[in-house]
Amino acid sequence: MHFEYTALDASGRQLKDKLSANSEAEAIQLLTAKGLTPVRLHEAHSERPSRRSSRGRTGNPRVATVLLIRELASLLNAGVTLEEALRTLLDGRNESSLAEPLAAVLTAVLSGERFSAALRQQADSKTMPIPAYVIALVSAGESTGDLAAALGRAADQLEFDEQVRAETSEALVYPVILIMAGAAAVLFVFSFVVPRFSTLLAGKKADLPWLSSAVMSTGEFVNQHNIALLVAAAVLALAFAMLRRVLGPERIRSALSKTPVLGQWMQQQELSRWTGMLALMLQSRVPILTALDLTANAVGLPEISAKLQRCLGDVGRGETLSRAFTEHDLLPHSALSMVRVGERTGQLGEMMSHVATYTLEQNRRQRRRLVALIEPAAILLLGGIIALVIVGVVLALTSLSEVKF
């Protein structure tokens, strides 16, 4: 795919050109690797960016938020004040869906609120979604007086999250298609194929093997109550959606994190995230108690957040960070060794960065392992169901013709 872009270089000069990439996320990474800050990005086939493209990426407000944060960081690096930078961004997005949340942020800043507090008010916006850890990094930048660098790191983390999300989605495409095709095949067999054999064997079910009787009875039930089953499936989907809204994403993530395979991957993903955030804040000279508090508030899993809060209390009472992590079982032993080395050498931020890199690689391996397990599990399950149906039908026909093997 070919993309047209408008970007700012290190000196603040605006550049316009084209580049080739497989996706818009990859195009953003290529521009960032060249030291450019993307401002506009759209497919080269269109004559000009559409309204949706002006948000950064067609139909994806998350990537639009990344572009917004990157542009804001570039403006602040160039010496522009926060108020002027926000006004500039708002002027360039008057016709986009980002205009309303941007105007609200600017109004809050002008009224005297901190920038992080203004962003927190827009955190739940659908057009400008801002994760909690981004607000934590912005708050850390305000604490150290280096807001531009904090925004740049926040954009890096957002791009990484988008990349992980895209990689996971792409890896799940084939398993999802496989499951849907298999489920459709099973439904077709029970709705149309099995009932025909059931009609042929009418009156002889008492003499059929138990497997054949179960298959025929299931086929007849599905054929006679197909509308009721579809209504029941719709009701279950609606009930799940309502339950998700009532419980909230945090409780659902907390419940999923306790499952055997998926839970381990989710905990490892959260580990790589919060260690990376803590490393960035420590490297930015944020006091360790403030860094721990911000990290605990940005963590998505309530259990890990509670453990970090207890670590905050322990460190506040004079314990070392490595001892607090050990007592609350927050890091593996290999990572704890790196934290102890950082404490002894005065390079705790750098060592936490190594821990984040290590846990990130572990998380990627677990994701590949999880995705690799889905495909054979789906094949075995759906293939086993179809095999049972075939065996049941064959046994029924064999019993009917009284053929002995």
3D architecture notes:
The N and C termini lie far apart (61 Å). With 405 residues, the chain is mainly α. Helix content is 72%, strand content 5%. It has a three-stranded antiparallel β-sheet with strand order 2-1-3. Helix 4 (99-110) runs antiparallel to helix 5, helix 6 runs antiparallel to helix 7 (147-200) and helix 13 (321-327) runs antiparallel to helix 14 (333-345). It has helices spanning 24-33, 61-77, 82-91, 99-110, 115-121, 132-144, 147-200, 210-224, 226-256, 261-283, 288-298, 302-316, 321-327, 333-345, 348-401; strands at 2-8, 14-20, 37-43.
Give me a quick take on this structure:
The protein has 405 residues and is mostly helical. It has 15 helices and three strands.
The radius of gyration is 28 Å
Instruction: Give the tally of β-strands.
Output: 3
CATH class of the largest domain: Mainly Alpha
- Please give the order of strands in the largest beta sheet: 2-1-3
The domain count comes to 2
Write the layout of secondary structure elements.
Elements: E1 2-8, E2 14-20, H1 24-33, E3 37-43, H2 61-77, H3 82-91, H4 99-110, H5 115-121, H6 132-144, H7 147-200, H8 210-224, H9 226-256, H10 261-283, H11 288-298, H12 302-316, H13 321-327, H14 333-345, H15 348-401
Antiparallel strand pairs: 1-2, 1-3
